[in-house]
Design brief:
Strands 9, 10, 11, 12, 13, 14, 15, 16 and 17 form a nine-stranded antiparallel beta sheet that branches. A four-stranded parallel beta sheet has the order 3-2-1-4, with helices on both faces. It has a four-stranded antiparallel beta sheet with strand order 5-8-6-7, covered by helices on one side. It folds into three domains: 85 residues, Rossmann fold (3-Layer(aba) Sandwich); 66 residues, ATP-grasp fold, A domain (Dna Ligase, domain 1, 2-Layer Sandwich); 188 residues, D-amino Acid Aminotransferase, Chain A, domain 1. The protein contains twelve helices and 17 strands. Helices cover 29% and strands 26% of the residues. The structure holds adenosine-5'-triphosphate and magnesium ion (MG). The site of adenosine-5'-triphosphate has 18 residues, from strand 14.
Length: 386
């Protein structure tokens, strides 16, 4: 019997967002025989050369999104700053996965925290603040050492302010309440003494099938992901707890598509940091570590195909290539690729800027530690050939 929720290969997928995540999703979709149309405000976005159509428009341009969707069979997103009114409008005529309800919760850090807390999932101490004096009170209550985050609009550690003392309230308020947090809604988190950072990717299809990946181990430098390894070399019990949290999150949100749950490990206990309703940087290694890459899994989930196996067959790691690597001329990819098992992934971005994710290096090895070591060695070779 045909399944009305199913979008078969040969159909067209619309992606809101044409950054590297959209690009890699488009490449996986194309391999499976789909056509892809992308909407992005930047005409030179990373997806432009790998899609059938790239429409240049803002993420709150309902008319442009409706026009693009008129040539699609299903619509998804690769960035959470897409306006929910766009998703609501599109959902009148075609499946939109994930939908407006899940995005509404996730795209706002305060609503996201409240969802996690209500679901009984572990989160660190936090307060909300809607004025400078509330921020001062929150910092005082939490002990001064905090991460103050704009409720919406941040990524890669942007729209955040690290405080040491309650008296930093005014500086944090002026830094964040402006373009980053126009409405002055802030989430104030007590700084967690992080032992490890991990993430868990979970896919849920429109018919409710759920597949959870083994956790990834993530290392951040200056709040940007530097490298990531699958499977995380952590205890089986911690991995099982993290996977159960991810399952509860995706089911609690009834999210269709991919959800990545970022977690902190603090003295053996898990705390959820944040959620992302899309492919995630920490699962780029899934293409070589797992039976099914995150991008193929995302396509299967939004098209309501059977989900692929998430089994990790060989440890693998990635290291991000940030724009600063290009400062002294083109990185020496040729030297990095001399290392056996090392692969290069560039996103086709036309301008290298400090902190901008330009690509990544991946490698597999017999152990998670070995794979991590290999990508670090490859990274070092880019700027100082061995
Ligand atoms: N409460 C906290 N305690 C300790 N470290 C934190 C806290 N919040 C954030 N960090 C650090 O900053 C990093 C980035 O924070 P967060 O994930 O909130 O930001 P983001 O801008 O959404 O990042 P991304 O979109 O790249 O995941 C975390 O991975 C962690 O290393
Ligand atoms: Mg994060």
């Amino acid at each position: 019997m045909s399944n009305p929720l199913r979008v078969l290969p040969g159909s067209t997928i619309g992606i809101l967002g044409g950054g590297q995540l959209g690009r890699m999703m488009a490449m996986a979709a194309r391999e499976m025989g789909y056509r892809i149309r992308v909407l992005d405000p930047d005409a030179g976005c990373a997806s432009r050369y790998v899609v059938d159509e790239q429409k240049t428009a803002r993420f709150d341009d309902v008319e442009a999104a409706v026009d693009l969707a008129s040539r699609c069979d299903v619509v998804t997103l690769e960035i959470e700053s897409v306006s929910t009114s766009v998703l609501e409008e599109l959902a009148k005529t075609l499946p939109v996965r994930p939908g407006a309800a899940a995005l509404h919760v996730i795209q706002d850090r305060i609503r996201q925290r409240e969802f996690l807390q209500t679901a009984g999932l572990p989160v660190g101490d936090f307060r909300t603040a809607f004025s400078a004096s509330e921020l001062h009170e929150a910092l005082t209550a939490l002990g001064g050492q905090c991460f103050v985050k704009a409720a919406s609009g941040g990524y890669d550690g942007r729209a955040q302010f690290r405080t040491e003392l309650a008296s930093d309230a005014m500086a944090a308020w002026s830094a964040l309440v402006g373009p980053a947090a126009k409405d002055g809604r802030l989430l104030v988190e007590k700084a967690v003494r992080i032992d490890q950072e991990i993430s868990v990717l979970v896919a849920r299809s429109a018919s409710g099938e759920v597949a959870v990946y083994p956790p990834a181990l993530n290392h951040h430098i200056e709040r940007i992901l530097a490298w990531s390894t699958i499977p995380a070399p952590i205890s089986a019990s911690l991995a099982a707890q993290a996977e159960e949290i991810a399952r509860q999150c995706v089911q609690g949100l009834a999210l269709e598509g991919l959800l990545c749950v970022e977690l902190f490990v603090e003295r053996g206990h898990l705390l959820v940091n944040e959620l992302a309703p899309r492919p995630h940087n920490s699962y780029h290694a899934s293409s070589i570590a797992c039976q099914t890459s995150q991008f193929e899994q995302g396509v299967r989930a939004i098209c309501n195909l059977p989900l692929g196996s998430t089994e990790a067959t060989r440890p693998a790691a990635i290291a991000n290539l940030l724009g600063e690597l290009w400062l002294a001329g083109p990185p020496r990819f040729d030297y990095a690729l001399e290392l056996p098992g090392v692969r290069l992934h560039l996103y086709g971005k036309n301008e290298a800027r400090r902190g901008r994710k330009m690509g990544h290096i991946s490698a597999s090895a017999d152990t998670a530690e070995g794979a991590t070591e290999l990508v670090k060695q490859a990274l070092a070779r880019l700027t100082s050939p061995a």
